[in-house]
Amino acid sequence: MNPRPGLRQGLIELRQAFTGTELIGNLFWPVATLVAVVLLRDRGTLILPGTLGMFVAFGTLLMVQNLAADREDGTLLRAKAIPDGIRGYLIGKLVTVSATVLAYLTILLAPGLILFSGLTVQWPTLIWVVALGLIATQTIGAVLGSLISSSRGAGVLSLPVLALVATSGIFVPITALPTWVATAAKVFPVYWLGEGMRGATLAGGTWQLSTAALILGAWSLAGLVAAPVLLRRMSRLESGSRVAARRARLLRSVG
């Protein structure tokens, strides 16, 4: 398979996402989050690593939202008509969402290194944590996105994802949560994103980086195998009449 069409499409979408009014929307949340962390003053050093992990985890939601929107407007149907188009479509989305998340991380981390003296980046660790985290969370997002057919469904699906982030020790120490919640959280990649980010940016401490690499790697591999299969299955169910029906429902709901 030639990945260049997917890469090219991803870069086009990325350029559109960071120009005009789209640029303001994309910059708002990381900038607002950075301001909030700065206002916490001394606690910012401990909170920022978890915040970085949270933004990587939100790649799941970005992927779900992109898939829902593209399914509604017929983009996915057009990709289906191109040879190996679904795989190229997935590559394009991974490029767009990954670059967007990396921009968020840069907005948070670059000032954070100046403002919070307790941060010290272990770059090799940070690189593999971010790389595995991006793949794991976005392929999970692609799998989840293949199960819904509308933006409303994406909104509903965001609730359990946000709940998972909230209960994965990103902000609250996982030891403060009920034992069964803490045990369940360690099955999913979000907890290990937080663990990896803390290991990559905080001096001292004992971090389970080997376990983080193993679990994030396992989720990444599972997602890379499952996402193209489920997206192709979903695309086979797409048709012009289905897209038209979804557009009609959307217009009625807006009206």
Q: Percentage of helical residues? A: over 70%
User: DSSP strand (E) fraction?
Assistant: under 5%
Q: What is the CA–CA distance across the termini?
A: 43 Å
Low-pLDDT ranges? none
Number of strands: 0
Kindly name the structural category.
mainly alpha
Task: Chart the SSEs and their pairings.
Blueprint lengths: L3 H14 L2 H20 L4 H14 L1 H15 L1 H6 L4 H31 L7 H23 L5 H16 L12 H7 L3 H13 L7 H28 L3 H15 L1
Helix pairs in contact: 1-6, 2-3, 2-6, 3-6, 3-10, 4-6, 4-7, 4-8, 6-7, 7-10, 7-11, 10-11
Verbal overview:
The chain is mainly alpha-helical. It has helices at 4-17, 20-39, 44-57, 59-73, 75-80, 85-115, 123-145, 151-166, 179-185, 189-201, 209-236, 240-254. The chain is built from 12 helices and no strands. Helix 7 (123-145) runs parallel beside helix 11 (209-236) and helix 10 packs across helix 11. The chain is globular, with a radius of gyration of 19 Å.
Key words describing this protein structure:
255 residues; mainly alpha
Summarize the structure.
This protein is mainly α. The protein has helices at residues 4-17, 20-39, 44-57, 59-73, 75-80, 85-115, 123-145, 151-166, 179-185, 189-201, 209-236, 240-254.
